[in-house]
Structures are given as C-alpha cells and as structure tokens.
C-alpha cells in the first residue's frame, strides 16, 4: 500500500487539515509519510516567480516549467518513482476505482496547479520517468488543485489497511453505492419522533425482510431522481446479462 505521499503547492498551508484527520492519525502511527512542499522553494529569483503569461495569448497565467522540473528532480527517487497525480479540469474523472488503484502504489506525488494549468512540458517530461495521471474531480471551476488533492488524499488514505481500523486488505467497496450501483437509502436514528417528524414505521417493525425491501425501494427512487446515469449503467448491465 501507499508508504509515502508528497504534495507540491504554492499554498502548502492549505494542507494543514491533513494533520487533523484520519490522515494525521495514519502518519502519527507510522503507516505512511505525508510531506507538503512549497513550489517556490525551487525558484531562484527575488520574486520567487512560478507563473507567466501563456504563449499564444489568452487570459490568466500558466505555471512555468522550471520550478516544477526542479521540484520533481528533488522529490522523485528514480529507484522508486511515484505516480504523479495532477488535478485538472481537463483530466479523466477521478473515481473510487482510481482511489483503489493508487492505494496500492508505494509512492504518490500530487502536483497542485492553478486553474489555467501547468506548462504541458512538465507532464510530458515527467512521463519519461514516472506514471502521470491527469484527473478531474468534477466539472466546476476552482482556482487551483489544492481542494482536489485534499479530497483525493482522503479517498486514497482511508483505503490503506489499518488506517480506519479495518485490518483486512484493500477491501473492494463501491463509492456512493448502497447496493448494486444504487445510491444509499435515507437513514434515521433516535428519537423516533422529532419536531413532529416520525421515523418511517417499517424501520421500527423489526421485520428485516420489510426493512430490506423498503430500503431497496428508497435506493431505487433516489437513484432515479438524482442519478439516472447510474441506472443507465445498471440497465446496460441488465441488458448484457
Ligand atoms: N475542476 C478543477 C479546477 O477548476 C482546477 C483544478 C482541479 C480541478 N479538478 O480536479 O476538478
């Protein structure tokens, strides 16, 4: 499983929360090392410049290749190169399957770029010495990759055996799926009545068959309403079988 995660960003303070969460516990228990680096440590000019205007024109700024090249030179061990993960809106979708895949990698290096992106030659050059994964968390505009890296690091680290107390190996688990690719059903706990709102009586019936049936119906209703795309995939499987 993952033993070492490096994160490079011009906002290293963004990753302070990692020390609090389950990631912090995993690091404290020696399960893995997580190191955050300031990209500007690999600049040499007075203003510690990391970006410049785009060739070909256009708005915004692009991250210069030199600092990234030097950062990767410093952080990549040729004997055990990491998977380089670059969050970008132009990436392939990040999925639970990818989280599982990366949880098996001994080393991961997350490169946080600004929205307009990192000079493409950085990824091209990196591909000569490590696997490079350009991934997107979703189709919305962020100002940089830091938020995406926080999400991806959590998704990956929680899968490492021993991190959330699950001694077994990387158990295959679905993402939002309650069962069979459907969304989770609604959940309830005490009190049975709250502000005039009652817990669905079936859940208090003690009839596990009825509870299971009710939950499946709820999952189906929710999936139809919120994620018809999952049903299409489900349907496709049904058709194929
Ligand atoms: N969407 C977005 C962005 O706008 C900037 C950096 C990373 C991402 N992303 O991973 O989805």
Characteristics of this structure?
241 residues; elongated; single chain; binds 2-azanyl-3-nitro-phenol; 7 helices; Trp Operon Repressor, Chain A; five-stranded parallel beta sheet; disordered C terminus; two-stranded antiparallel sheet; Alpha/beta knot; alpha/beta; 2 domains; 17% strand
Protein model, in words:
With 241 residues, the chain is an alpha/beta fold. It has 2 domains: 4-157, Alpha/beta knot, CATH 3.40.1280.10; 177-232, Trp Operon Repressor, Chain A (Orthogonal Bundle), CATH 1.10.1270. Helices cover 32% and strands 17% of the residues. The protein is built from 7 helices and 9 strands, in the order E-H-E-E-E-H-E-H-E-H-E-H-E-E-H-H. It has helices spanning 22-28, 65-75, 96-103, 120-126, 146-157, 208-226, 228-240, and strands at 4-9, 33-38, 51-52, 62-63, 83-93, 107-111, 131-136, 193-194, 197-198. A 5-stranded parallel β-sheet has the order 2-1-6-5-7. A two-stranded antiparallel sheet has the order 3-4. A two-stranded antiparallel ribbon has the order 8-9. Helix 2 (65-75) packs parallel to helix 4 (120-126) and helix 3 crosses helix 5. The longest helix is centred in the C-terminal third of the chain and has 19 residues, at 208-226. The chain is elongated, with a radius of gyration of 22 Å. The two termini are 34 Å apart. Residues 236-241 have low confidence and may be disordered. 2-azanyl-3-nitro-phenol is lined by residues 87-89, 115, 136-138, 140-142, 144-145, 148.
């Amino acid at each position: 499983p993952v033993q070492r995660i490096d994160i490079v960003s011009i906002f290293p303070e963004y990753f302070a929360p990692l020390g609090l969460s389950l990631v912090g516990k995993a690091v404290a228990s020696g399960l893995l090392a997580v190191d955050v680096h300031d990209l500007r440590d690999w600049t040499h000019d007075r203003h510690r410049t990391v970006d410049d205007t785009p060739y070909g024109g256009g708005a915004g700024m692009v991250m210069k290749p030199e600092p990234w090249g030097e950062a990767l030179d410093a952080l990549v061990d040729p004997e055990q190169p990491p998977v380089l993960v670059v969050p970008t809106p132009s990436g392939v979708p990040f999925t639970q399957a990818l989280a599982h895949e990366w949880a098996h990698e001994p080393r991961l290096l997350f490169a946080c770029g600004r929205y307009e992106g990192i000079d493409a030659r950085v990824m091209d050059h990196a591909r000569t010495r490590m696997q490079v994964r350009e991934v997107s968390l979703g189709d919305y505009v962020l100002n940089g990759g830091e938020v995406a890296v926080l999400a991806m690091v959590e998704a990956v680290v929680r899968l490492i055996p021993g991190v959330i107390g699950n001694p077994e190996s990387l158990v295959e688990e679905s993402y939002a799926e309650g069962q069979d690719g459907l969304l989770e059903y609604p959940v309830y706990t005490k009190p049975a009545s709250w502000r005039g709102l009652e817990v669905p009586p079936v859940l208090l019936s003690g009839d596990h068959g009825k509870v299971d049936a009710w939950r499946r119906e709820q999952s189906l209703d929710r999936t139809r309403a919120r994620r018809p795309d999952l049903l299409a995939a489900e349907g496709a499987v049904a058709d194929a079988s």
